[in-house]
Amino acid sequence: MSQPLLKAEGLAKRFGDRVVLQDVGLEVEEGEIHGIMGPNGAGKTTFFHVLTGQHKPDAGRVTFRGEDITGLAPREIACRGIARSFQLMNLFDDETALVNTMVATPEMRARGFDLFSDAARLEAATERAQRALADVGLEHQASARAKGLSYGERRALEIGVALASDPKLLFLDEPTAGLGAEGTERIAKLIGSLRRKVTIVLIEHDMRFLFGLADRIAVVHWGQVIARGTPEALRANPWVQRSSLAA
Amino acid sequence: MPSALARAPLITPTHVVVALLFATAPWWITRIGLYPYLGVEILVWMIFALGYNLLLGYGGLPSFGHGAFFGVGAYAFGLAQLKLGTGLWSSLGLAIVAAALAGALVAAFISHRRGIYYALLTIAFGQVFWFVAVKWHSVTGGEDGLLNVKRPVLDLGFAAFPLASNTAMLEFALAAFVVVSIFLWRLVHSPYGRVLRAIKQNETRAAFVGHPVWLYKWSAFTISCAVAGLAGAIFCLAQQSAYPNVMSLHQSGFVVMMVLVGGGLVSFWGPVIGAIFFILARDLLGAYTEAWLLWYGLLFMGLVLFKPEGIAGAWQSFRARMTPSPKEGGGLA
Q: Which pLDDT score, from 0 to 100, does residue A43 have?
């Protein structure tokens, strides 16, 4: 069997005497949409933070394409092809939508210490930035400032910024947080359209949303993975059925 | 598709207007009751403020001890000439390098910080430099400072100009300003400048899209200090001396006020407006009252309260009201 794109084993994290993660593992195969669900405070976001470098795990190992990336800084992890969106929005608010995505491109990373050329003339960066905006349906808002966009558009831009960095693996932390039914529908379509373009790990509360999108799902509760499998298999899982999580 | 990111020309009409304004100053400045040396001073502060705004306006990094690096440049220029006997160009070069090195050292200690902690550390480091200037008599001359710095002949190879007259100094300072303003104009529109602005708005996100945030903050501080050093060197040349006051906390405060009053947070040219405004206010208000800083300070407070975007910001909103059109983004244009 080929090795998974991302493999995490035995991850543990505690803050003071509060254990947030204990012995959490995850395997993500190339091309899939992998869901992570669980109630509030289950440790889902901490899990993301540990995987993307915001927090160092107390124990455990994360490998990405066979390389050990445990405990690397966010920047180093990003440069290896892992991007993430944030649950609370994290944009460059005063910049236009285009500049938001452009700053995230690998071209800007490579040319970041170029002090003399005009950034607007970096064709490759602007093209990739425009493609990322088109992917999230914001091409018509390219020159609008991020803070002037609607909530739903900002949610989409949040994903667009992550996409612009040309990731192999994309972590999305509750991309529908705070959205109504219509907005959720739009984001679901958007994520569906990214399938096969990029591997996605998706944290989500909304079960209907997650079950409709994910190829496989891991259920996290009390800092542990308590169940995992395809949406069909999980529907039959007694714990999922019993819990309020069930759709 | 409309281009959302306007290309930046190499030189803007504003560059030309400012350069012409100062280049012609020798012919009109005395007629309006001012004097050429005032032009020199304004140009020195314009250079200092433009370089400072790279840090404050574009990087969002509040340095309240920047006078120190202006001072390092001034002292380094004086010392190079008095102790090493170097000529104009090498003294200027040494001043820039010395200020950049001092800046790089300080930046190494503060670049992992932000906000108020960043600001406090810059004040502390600024005071260290000031204290050294006052106490290290054998090198800095203590309270008296360095005296008898010469204004050497400016040798361009094909021609030589004595800098003894203030008119010549004005043209020399103007040339330096033109170089600095073009350099910084390129810089803020370069990929580096774009990333720096992004870091100002959201350090976390910038790190998560793969930018080495610390290195940007460190280098922005260092570049800004190098420019401050150049301004300090020209100041030393103009004053023919360097003394502790040039690196005092006052000096650091003045540049912050200039940048904010002028509108450095919303415009590349804000610091230039602010420097002109400040020095003119000093001379014109100062002619009436010793307490001119009190009036200027009140004005500063009013501006921060009611128009924090400064003079350039007021101008921008005025223009926006005159030409109602959908506002395209850009922030610092």
A: 85
The C-alpha of A130 sits at a distance from chain B's nearest C-alpha, in angstroms, of 10
Quickly count: other Cβ atoms within 10 Å of residue B123's Cβ: 17
Alpha-carbon gap, residue A195 to A199, rounded angstroms: 7
Q: What pLDDT, on the 0 to 100 scale, is given for residue A42?
A: 81
ipTM score here? 0.89
Q: Answer for the pair B137, B125: CB distance below 8 angstroms, yes or no.
A: no
Rounded to an integer, the average pLDDT of A189-203 is 92
- Residues 195-254 (B) with a CB less than 8 A from some CB of A: 195, 197-198, 201-202, 204-213, 216, 219
Q: What pLDDT score does B330 carry?
A: 46
Pick from B204, B208, B215, B309 the residue to mutate for testing the A interface (most A CBs within 10 Å).
B208
**pLDDT over 60 (residue B27):** yes
Global confidence as pTM: 0.91
pLDDT (average), residues B29-51 = 92
Q: How far apart are CA A45 and CA B168, in angstroms?
A: 64
Q: Could you tell me the pLDDT band of residue B68, with boundaries at 50, 70 and 90?
A: very high
* Per-residue pLDDT reduced to its tens digit, A167-178: 999 999 999 888
| Residue in A closest to B195 by C-alpha | A103
Tens digit of each residue's pLDDT (9 = 90 or more) over B191-224: 999 999 999 999 999 999 999 999 999 999 999 9
pLDDT of residue B85: 84
> Partners of A173 in the beta sheet?
A203
Pairwise CB contact (< 8 Å): B194 & A119: yes
